[in-house]
Amino acid sequence: MVQGNDTPTSEFLLLGLSEDPELQPILFGLFLCTYLITVLGNLLIILAVSSDSHLHTPMYFFLSNLSLVDICFTSTTIPKMLVSIQTQSKAITCAGCITQMYFLILFGGWDNFLLTAMAYDRFVAICHPLHYMVIMSPQFCGLLLLLLWIISSLNSLLHSLMLLRPSFREDLEIPHFICEIKQMIKLACSDTFLNDMAMYLATGLLASGPLAGILYSYSKIVSSICAIPSVQGKYKAFSTCASHLSVVSLFYCSVLGVYFSSASTHSSQSSAVTSVMYTVVTPILNPFIYSLRNRDIKESLKRILGMAHTKCTIVLGLKM
């Protein structure tokens, strides 16, 4: 990758959310707390699913993977931002920027695919309950997970390799707190037609496809629930997918909100602020949604916390 004067590009500058020095300690504390809560909350979900045999089902298998992806996604963005604020250095190497962008696309796409897989799981559970264990077998879930991982990996690899093509102008300031692909393409001074085509094509296929799958699954779910004669049966069926529906709504509403806000405003800084919704807010809310709305998760977490409290009491008693 080279600049317009054919000298190697060594680094980019991530301008962050604000350049106001008085806001930096506040941002550091806020994002540090957010990151710790996100990691802890999602780790508790993974621990609850892995330690409770009652939760060894396809639905919770996908949920634990979603929690793992949320941890990886936030770990790709927030730690770098915290280091930049603490050291007051906005520089990131060219290789580091492309690497961060690779993992952002990878885990973002993976998040999207997992939500689609979870919607399909609920579709089979509600619309085809008698064949659920046959259709959603461990082998099928594992193969589905592998296929989605390969697609997401190839997509992120394609965009990363294509960013090695264009030359960049001398002004390498990115008005964002992450190496966002759209902002990086804007810095190029050579032809970016192929980059733009790849970006829009991949977004169209890999975003609209899963969204269409989710909408189709829930249209069938709603029609099946409406066909249930008893009110109690309808409530029980709907409660099995309420948490997932809440997470899907949060994810897509935040992504669409960022898209429309960036399209309606010319301020890249405003786009960076709205991007916090899906890069930071969504991962921290997912474990709360599932732990508060899911009885099985709540009971499992209570047992884990109860056992931890008992062990701590025993240890403290022995020391005294």
What's the short version?
The chain has 320 residues and is mainly alpha-helical.
Describe the structure.
The structure is a single chain. With 320 residues, this protein is mainly α. Helices cover 77% and strands 3% of the residues. The protein has ten helices and three strands. It has a three-stranded mixed beta sheet with strand order 2-1-3. The protein is globular. The N terminus is likely disordered.
Termini separation: 64 Å
**Global geometry:** globular
Q: Give the overall average pLDDT.
A: 84
As a percent range, the share of helical residues equals over 70%
Number of helices: 10
Low-confidence segments, given as residue ranges, are 1-8
Number of strands: 3
> Topology as H/E string?
EHHEHHHEHHHHH
Query: Major β-sheet, in short?
Result: 3 strands, mixed
Topology:
Elements: E1 11-14, H1 24-51, H2 58-87, E2 91-93, H3 94-127, H4 132-135, H5 138-162, E3 173-174, H6 181-186, H7 193-226, H8 231-264, H9 268-293, H10 295-319
Parallel strand pairs: 1-3
Antiparallel strand pairs: 1-2
